[in-house]
Fold these 2 entries.
Entry 1:
Amino acid sequence: MSAHLPILQVVVPLLAAPFCLFLKRGRVAWGLAVLASWAALAIALALLDQVMREGVLSYAIGDWAPPIGIEYRVDVVNAWVLVIVSGIGAIVSPYAMASIEREVEAGRIPLFYAAYLLCLSGLLGITITGDMFNVFVFLEISSLSAYALIALGQARRALTSAFRYLIMGSVGATFIVIGIGLLYVMTGTLNMADLAQLLPEVWDSRTVKVAYGFLTVGFCLKLALFPLHLWLPNAYTYAPSAVTAFMASTATKVAVYMLLRFFLTIFGAPFSFDVMALDRVLLPLALVAIASMSLVAIFQVNVKRLLAYSSVAQIGYMILGLSFATVTGLTATLLHLFNHALMKGALFMAMGCVMYRIGSVHINAMAGLGRRMPWTMAAFVVGGLSLVGVPLTVGFVSKWYLILGALERGWWPVAILVLLTSLLALVYIWRVVEAAYFRDFPGDEQTREAPWTLLGPTWALVALNLYFGIDAGRTVQIARQAAETLMAGISP
Amino acid sequence: MSFDLLVSHYNYWIVIFLMMVGFYILISRGNLIKKIVGLNVFQTSVFMLYISMGKVSGATPPILVYPYGEGDVLYSNPLPHVLILTAIVVGIATTSVGLALAVRIKEAYGTIEEDEINAIEARTEAAE
Amino acid sequence: MREEVIVRVGAKVLAPFIITFGLYVHFHGDYSPGGGFQAGVILAAAIALLALVYGLDAVQKVVTPRFVRACAALGVIIFAGVGVVTMVLGHNYLGYNALAHDPRHGQHYGILGVELGVLVTVFGVMVTVFYLFAGRRGRTQ
């Protein structure tokens, strides 16, 4: 059974999704979704454990040996990302029940869980596969279900933001297919490991460089790197709360993983950094993203939109780590993948609790909520502190490695900028805290704390924020090992 | 670049032309349906790119010639065809999701012109 | 078009042939061009033709929206189910050789099973999409 874990990782949620459509009652579909997502988490943890002990796992689909057939290939890097994605999937799915019943009409709830599981299996598929074209197929599975999930939002603006995401996402995916096609022309293979062996012979060809360009734009669209982030703020603002929590913590992370996998494993670090100067292209974009998006976030009145802009800035931190082109920098990137998923998940879930009780996430509507919903706002404060990077939270760990990476390269202005932008994060988090704790509550006296079905998963993530902030040894060890694997590439 | 090179790579010129046409429609048109049409043209250019690169000169289409497995038949590369079949399915799915969203946007806003939608959204935002 | 005799009779005569052709494309898809996707679209086209001629309501009495939606889900289950069956039989996921003693037959059954899943899903999705767009009667604000 354990030999089949790589395929089960994708098939379990994929097979559960159509069954959701047969279930008429939303609660039953929810139960199935919870089961499937926790099974996926268990599989991901088992895979990570197996990879740490035994090294790379390879699974040949349909008994066709790679490079002819589709290979699922698990190493430390994607085992790590699998744990992040399925972990968030497992925590958001119990949370979804109450939140979705409030925000989505009853008839559509089984459809919601089907789309949720499809999105989850698509993201897991992108991460686990070792075949380039398979990446595209899973990318579209996850994207199409994401468009549907976002369009389920209550406001009619959910529709237009889903449409914009569809247009930009499809353009990004098509750019990626063009890149994949050009690589296939040059090498005649789609298997990633095989490509890594064959590509150095054709480094000089213009086709490979053009493919690199198309892939760069495609991935940057998908991971919402400034200035290609325009689809993200509205999509996150108007999607149902559970969807925002899930997407913000997984979708862009998987896109970052794709970028790392293609540019470091397939093309190899020497080609990316020495020939194509990827680091010098990404560094200014990352810095502008961090600074400008943190500033924009300060002026938002809708707290979900505020957090969405902050997400774009945080993606800048991940790309900044990559642009150091060192193992320490990559460690920071991979750590921040995990840590940002924890903190943004917690923050958006806290917003979901607010949405559940008062039906709005406008900053004025949250006045005085600190006393009405103490647990929710406490979760928000801890998540916010983590976002700022206060010690004893996970945010501190990733900032620490990011600054270490900058100093290692001797780029102390970058290190100072990271510190300064953390203060910007403090400003926008403070605006919410100020509204919640230092203003009078104007609303209904009946407003109570959110139910425990919402608070439980939220606080589970908050607890993880604190736990991995205090005991970061294990996560840092895995992230460093993954970074070393990426920088080394596939040895012949 | 010689004239022969330009002519012998005619498939790429068609692909680039279609790609730019699709991309231009996508960017310049405000009508949501036209945007989807542009996206389709754009995606179709990629299908052409894949299919034309799978062609082996002097080869038959990759369909088994009877009697199977005998005789000396040169086939074109079938793999790009299979990949593009998948991509076509994806394109159809994207189109139908896009059209469905356009229909619901029409119901919610009463228009599918992007500038009118933006105006309505700006008004509701100001009212909040 | 409900009153046009030629169109009505023509559609009635054509529909079974279109469906038969769709099934032919499916079952012969492993040796010649064709397969589940094309077959599913052809079958859906037959339904669309009947709906255009006889009206959506008449066709939806026979091929109900719930049925086609169930088809869409069922096909995915068939596809993934074939993979699970091969896995239970001790091979890798979608390793068709597990399905018969002779690998050639195994491949044959496997591909037909998987393509059947594709056919059912594509048929279900195509007809659902058609119903959704055809069933809207200018409901604006």
Note: Chain B has one domain: 3-127.
Entry 2:
Amino acid sequence: MLKFTFRGVRGSIASPGPKTVKYGGNTTCIEVRTDSELIILDAGTGIFPLSQTLFPEFPLTCHIFISHTHWDHIQGLPFFIPMFVAGNRVKIYGGQDPVTGNGVQEALSRQLEYAFFPIREAELSAELEYISLSENQVVNIGDAQITNVLMNHPAIDYGYKVSCGDKSLFFTGDHEWPYNIYEPGDDDYQLFKEHIAQKRKSIIDMVAEVDVLIVDTAYTDDEYPAKKGWGHGSFLSSIAMARDAGVKHCFFTHHEPTRSDEELEKVFQAALEKHPSQPGDQEFYLAQEGFTFEL
Amino acid sequence: MSDLHQQLVQMVDRMPAFSGSVNKILQMTSDIDCAPKDLVQVIEHDPVMMAKILKLVNSAYFGLSREITSIKHGVVFVGLNTIKNLAISIATMGMLPKAGPAGLDMNSFLLHSLGTASIAKLLGKRLGVMPDKTTDYFVGGLLHDIGKVVFAQFMPQEMERALKRVEVEEVSLSIAEMIEIGADHAQLGGMLAEKWQLPHTLVTCIKEHHSLEPNGGPNKVLDCVVAANIIVKQVGFGCAGNLIEDRLPDHVSARFGMELAELQESIGNLDEELEKANAFIRI
């Protein structure tokens, strides 16, 4: 069994309010369940409402995979209640900071510094463990297997594939497909283009034929040019990715924080009309907080 | 020697880059709209930045399943912002002094490296390599003498004596380094490149650029770097401390089907290529 529940689908910053009630205002967090395991993808503010549902499972063991350490993907971590309760085991996985060489623990330790939070890391009662991942490292957790691939974002950002039995899902974290920094007339244009094609292949190979793709789709196609280089995808890029990888279901997430429910549905419909479904196409959905999907 | 190597490996991590590129990186990256290709160009013209960034992106931090052979390659595989932040972190370590304590003029050294890089690329094209496949030729040329900067920075007294010996005794710098330090810059650079897990072709270019024999089998990139290194000295562009003019090794002559003078003549006027390198230093 593999199923998941969106606990946070908003990008960049939490956006609560009457206009985001339907799709939700919490930032990225996805609860993934197999028969035996609890795996959490990213620890945005959505991890707080998730943590409030976990009391009946104490003492629990859970595995949190951080795509990258930008605020909207880690901000809920200090409020992850199981960490405060003895007997729980929390394992946190993520990439290393290549500039400082620091592992993923740095992100949490820093959040828990005196100026930012009243409780120090040493005071957390649960058993905590940090695991720094390199690209393509395979992690076996009970009946699940998690692998990663380096995505393209202004940070080290891993996309995670979770497989269990013959079911699998892939979550991009934040991702913008690399674009050519050279102009068609430049000497290096062709070479760069080839590197981009190789990179695309390395990601598509990982995502190929997963059942579910959960993909950063922050922008409409029209908005994208002004946001190029910010590290996020558009409906155009996400639909192309889903098609190239031959996935069965595709959920658009990382909703733009200023987008109301009504506007979100409008741009979603417009995108589907602009990129009409082709034979054999997957189903497309808007990620919605609280929505559960069993594969 | 292994103790010395070990010591240098640790010191090199703190080695700063060339002053021009450090200034440019700091200036460019304070502008949020800085063009990615301009940033890449600066990094690609600094042997220290180039080596250090290739070292990091090929390291276990990333554990990438492929070798990253150039900065452009790195930009696509680990992201522009990561490359930019690596460059900033190197830039904030300070900068190499223009006149190194060992008496190695860093500007002349840089011109020699850039000249070798440009000519190696030109020679690669001459051998029929497609223009978009000549990156290794450029990077190999740029990095071939990296060991010299390391000696100058971390063993300035020994290197100064070696450079003097070159002048007074008319021996090659490699021989002088062997006498004063116990290893030459090709050995040291090659060892560092291996340690840094740089792509094999680059390791070979650094390690074997003074070899008269085709060690490790035929290698088109290395042959171009060897020839370019000699040509750039012939035309007197920059200087990296070696005053003895090498001859073209037989297997390199055979590769091009001609001797040095003929090869140099056949590639025509190098002014344009060398002016590009010069212009870059002047910016």
Note: The mean pLDDT of chain A is 96.
